[in-house]
Amino acid sequence: MKLFPPPKVSRTATGRLNTLAPLPLVVHQGLPRRLRNACTRFAARHEAVFITTRADLPRAIQLKLSGKHPGDEAHSLKITPNGVSITSSSESGLFRGLSTLSQMLRQAKSSIRCCEIKDVPDFANRGVMLDISRCKVPTLTTLKTLIEQFADLKYNQLQLYTEHTFAFTDHETVWRDASPLTASDILELQAHCQSHYIELVPNLNSFGHFERWLRHSEYRAYAECPDGFIHPLSGKPMPHGSTLRPTAASLDLVSRLYDEYLPLFDSETVNIGGDEPWELGLGYSRRRCEREGKTKVYLDFLNRLQTLAKKKGRRTQFWGDIVLEDPASLTQLSTDATAMIWGYEAGHPFEQQCALMAEAKVPFYVCPGTSSWNSLTGRLDNATKNLYEAASAGANHGAMGYLVTDWGDHGHHQTLPVSYPGFVLGASASWNAASSVSRSLSQGINLVFLDQQAPTLADRIVKMGKFPQLIKTKAVNATVFNHLLFWRMRRTPKWSSGINGVELEHAIQTMKAFA
Fold first, then answer.
1. Are 137 and 166 in contact (CB under 8 A)?
2. Contact 162, 113 (CB under 8 A)
3. Which 3 state secondary structure label does DSSP give 399?
4. How confident is the model at residue 200, as a pLDDT?
């Protein structure tokens, strides 16, 4: 029997618990209402389990609040022939213990071997970020299902990366035809997250990646480069701006967006973005950047955004790529801000970057990725290394949290199941970085995402993630197959020039046989 994430300590004992016989779950008056509701859902999911208030039954599931467990989610779980006891100093710890027990019951055919588990996460904050701004906005049903599945994996935070896909009252031009989430949707998701012990953290990019706004005529005046710019990575001309000019007017626009968006969330934190302000210093702020330096201009506006969020009762998270380009700037950051160190390739220098943040006493998260985007079928080998390397570096240097990112760059062509391996691996790495679930990954996907109904499908999802290994040529943050299908290869010959025809034909035939 495998558990996802794997527990820190698990010891087997003699005897077995019969899981076919009725198994009462004791819900006493001292349990918080949210946990009692979770118990009701637990009983509804497991046929043999039923709710009772009687604490004197000889065979039962008992939940005990005790002050002996360090850490908010630390807990112990003991299974004997006479039942189960879950103990923690917090209700969130009891909920995590119930998640473990649920996975065990779902895998048991008729009984569970007696055992004792002692568990506590490596990272206090463990989250998933879903990109809902690149061509796909999940339905409420999909998002609620994912929330339940993430809770099963013991994640405790969720972010929905938002550029233009919220229905701001005065800005329909921006979100029209984009299937935006509404205020009612966010409130519904907030309630669902809260009931599953997940913090829904608002994520609204507030500096760069503003192109979905700045392409419209009524917002051009906010752009650093209203008439477009040459993209520094691709060398291609961009017809409109992507970065806000760092002015009071831009700050006022963001303030009005915060006023409508942030009150929908219970979280005291907001991710304000701030990554990749590609054209900063090429337009409106050119002279100032030449005079003061681009990093100083960037930091000034970032700090003003953070001050703005603080006035609205929020601490801030921001992507750390720009400040890491100039480590001396770390001393100029607000003490209330948390840097999000992102990197999505195996071998990303998380160790060095985490060390810089720790030395400067800047709170930080590590943010690896699922490697699903720009891939079609996933990049499993890369994802595994990236997710575990981030966990190792973060744990070594005292990261506050771990955020698994699932992006949708260049059309969001991957389907949702392509991200399942990354979600399982990330949960395991962030809870127990010393563990490895690579050999049982398909089992975890089937258990958590496919309700134990499709082991063959789970195995095929994992095998598809290994398709990129059929080609020796590697693409950065993508697969060769994705480039061959969607990119203009004459403009980017580097992706195809190293591919051997025999090698490609073998890969094609392998995938055809798989289908």
1. no
2. no
3. coil
4. 99
Token pair of 131, please?
A: 């990109």
Question: Given pLDDT bands bounded at 50, 70 and 90, which one contains residue 29?
Answer: confident
Nearest Cα to 264, choosing from 198, 203, 184? 184
Would you mind telling me the total number of residues written for the chain in this entry?
A: 515
Q: Is the pLDDT of residue 252 over 70?
A: yes
DSSP string across 305-362? HHHHHHHTT-EEEEE-HHHHHSGGGGGGS-TTEEEEEE--STT--HHHHHHHHHHTT-
Burial of 139 (0-12, 13-18, 19+ CB in 10 A): exposed
- Whole-number Å distance between alpha carbons of 19 and 81: 10
Residue 358 makes CB contacts below 8 A (sequence gap 6+) with: 364, 397, 398
Pairing of strands 364-367, 337-342: parallel
Q: Identify which of 187, 308, 195 has the alpha carbon closest to the alpha carbon of residue 257.
A: 308
Q: Is the pLDDT of residue 275 over 80?
A: yes
Q: What is the pTM of this model?
A: 0.97
Strand partners, 62: 85
Name the strand (E) or helix (H) holding 294: helix 294-311
Over the stretch 138-175, which tens digit does the pLDDT of each residue have? 999 999 999 999 999 999 999 999 999 999 999 999 99
Distance CA 103, CA 366 (A): 27
Tell me the pLDDT tens digit for each residue of 429-480.
999 999 989 889 999 999 999 999 999 999 999 999 999 999 888 888 999 8
pLDDT, tens digit, 9 for 90 and up, residues 46-62: 999 999 999 899 899 99
Q: Is 260 exposed, middle or buried (0-12, 13-18, 19+ CB in 10 A)?
A: middle
List, in order of start, the domains of the chain with CATH numbers: 9-119 (3.30.379.10), 125-434 (3.20.20.80), 471-510 (no CATH)
Mean pLDDT of the chain: 95
Handedness of CA 296, 301, 302, 303 (dihedral sign): positive
The strands making up 269-271's β-sheet, listed across from edge to edge, are: 199-201, 157-161, 125-131, 401-406, 364-367, 337-342, 315-319, 269-271
* The two structure tokens encoding residue 140: 């409420």
Question: What is the arithmetic mean of pLDDT over 490-514?
Answer: 79
Contact of 294 with 280, CB cutoff 8 Å: yes
Selected residue with higher pLDDT from 20 and 508: 20
Report which residue type is found at 114.
C
- Token pair recorded at residue 17: 């618990």
* 3-state secondary structure (DSSP) of residue 200: strand
State the SS3 of 416-481.
HHHHHHHHHHHHHHHHCCCCCCHHHHHHHHHHHHCCCCCHHHHHHHHHHCCHHHHCCCCCCCCCHH
